[in-house]
Each structure stands twice: as structure tokens, then as C-alpha cells.
Amino acid sequence: MARRTYKPKSFEGIGGKFKNTYGRMQADTSANIYESMLQSAAFMDLSARQRLLYVYMKAQYYGKRKPGKDYPDMEKLQDDDLFYFSMAMAEEYGLYTRSNHTRFYADIKELERHGFIKTVSNGKKNKKKSIYRFSADWQQWKEG
Question: Could you tell me the domains of the chain?
Fold first, then answer.
């Protein structure tokens, strides 16, 4: 049986390919967020920018190269729930500027504290993309 591809509605996206902020053609992917997450105590406790940062991380997860392809010999980097993200990517999306990089790293820590992500490899020292893992711990998050 042939695999069906979801065609976005006109208000959701272009579908197919589009020119990104660097003028390069890129596939138009989605970043699914479910209602149960939107209404969770953990998500509601995040700031608007932290919520948006999470959405952009989901976009990276669904539409970009996975760490496992770059590190085929490292078993711990082969999991499907891993993705890259960096300060440079956050700047590209217009979420942060170089001068407020401290806020970016604080927001990453909040996403971790609320159980949405876990840091696998921090690329800050080497100016590389960090590797993160999505987590379901937000489902048991308690304020405090």
C-alpha cells in the first residue's frame, strides 16, 4: 500500500519546498503539538518565548538531519528522539539575538526543568550544535 503524504491546508503552509531565510530551498515540514501538551501544567508554566523555542525545536526534529547520520559509530546517538539545536538556529528563527544568549540558555534549562527535553551533548564550548532528546517527563511535572 502506498504511503500517503499529508498535504497542508493553505493556511498551514506552502507544502513542498520554499526559500528559507538563507535563500536556500528547503522542505516544508510541520511541528506537531498535541492539545494534551498545550493544556498541561508544565507547558502552561512556560513563558511565551520558551513555548515558541520548543515549537522550533520540534521543527528541527521533524525536518532536519539527525545526529545519528553524522555519528554512525556512536550507538547512544542513534535514537530517533534526538535532534540538533543551537544558539545560531535560535537567532536564525528570530527568537534571540547574540546579545541575549544568556536568555537562550536559561530558556533551554527551563525546558529541561519542565521535562520537555534533555541535553545529550552541549556544543556551547566548541561552538557546535548541541544534541537534545525529547522527553515525556512533562506529563508528570509538578510545579516547584
Answer: 48-140 (1.10.10)
